[in-house]
Amino acid sequence: MSQFVVSLNFNSLHQAFSARTGRILERAAFLLTAAEDATTNHGLVPNVKGPTPAVKLTPRPVEVVRPEGARWITECAIRDCLEEVQDFLEEVRKLCAAVGLSERGEVPGDILNIVVFGPSRKFDRLTLPEKIARLRADYGAEIIDPRVDHILTLNVARNCLVHRGGVVTVQDCNEGEELVVRWASLELHARRPSGDVLPVSEGEVLEAGTQILAKHVVSERRFSVGESIAFTTADLCGIWMMLHFFGIDTSLRIVNYAKSKGFVFKDDAPGGDAGGG
């Protein structure tokens, strides 16, 4: 009987997730800034020979196009980030399923395919909340970082952006009569020589003897019924930090799950030279 070895990489999972979501939000922040700085709208001018389109689009004022463009950029960015979250959770599922098979010792390849890859299509059809519930049911409540609750508030905003043009309706409200989006991130504070601890402003020059402190803070944006969803570039930075730490913490939780199944990692082995699972 032929044998093969399956290599499980516990580090690349969160690294790839963090990089992809970071690039998405970087592009969004760049475009939002460009839209804010725009002073003219040249509209759509066909650069083709022959008949022009039957419908002529007269350029509208920048003040009209700017919020529409910002809303579209935000919709694309939030939608794409949450698709990355769903892909990340699928990788979490496959990694946990493979770890679970380790208890059987040598596993035939057909069993590996059935257990690890077989459920992929069914899992893909689940909604984001359903995927989270499925993972917790199969691998324990602690398998997913609690920041996922903040990601679910972002998912509410995503649904409003995609299905209702970003204008909040009653069905979008997740707290009373408001749609609330939360994210946990790091905020830099400075302990001045005087002893005062104050937030650090962008571009601020700090005096000698100042200590820099990083504090975990929970930020939120509240949108009332009839209000349009909008995020600043600072908001997007905070959201990325939340996604980044969510990926790291969930990966560490998978490592702990693997240890509970008998995996030994190099850092934990006596002398530090034992092989990892």
Descriptive account of the structure:
With 277 residues, the protein is mainly alpha-helical. It has a domain at 12-42 and 59-166 and 230-272. 49% of the residues lie in helices and 11% in strands. It is built from seven helices and three strands, in the order ααααααβββα. It has helices at 12-37, 62-101, 109-117, 120-124, 128-139, 148-164, 233-260; strands at 178-191, 197-199, 211-224. A three-stranded antiparallel sheet has the order 2-1-3. Strand 1 (178-191) and strand 2 (197-199) form a beta hairpin. Helix 2 (62-101) packs parallel to helix 5 (128-139). The chain is globular and about 65 Å long. The chain starts with 11 loop residues before the first helix and ends in a 17-residue tail after the last helix. The model is unreliable at 269-277 (pLDDT under 50).
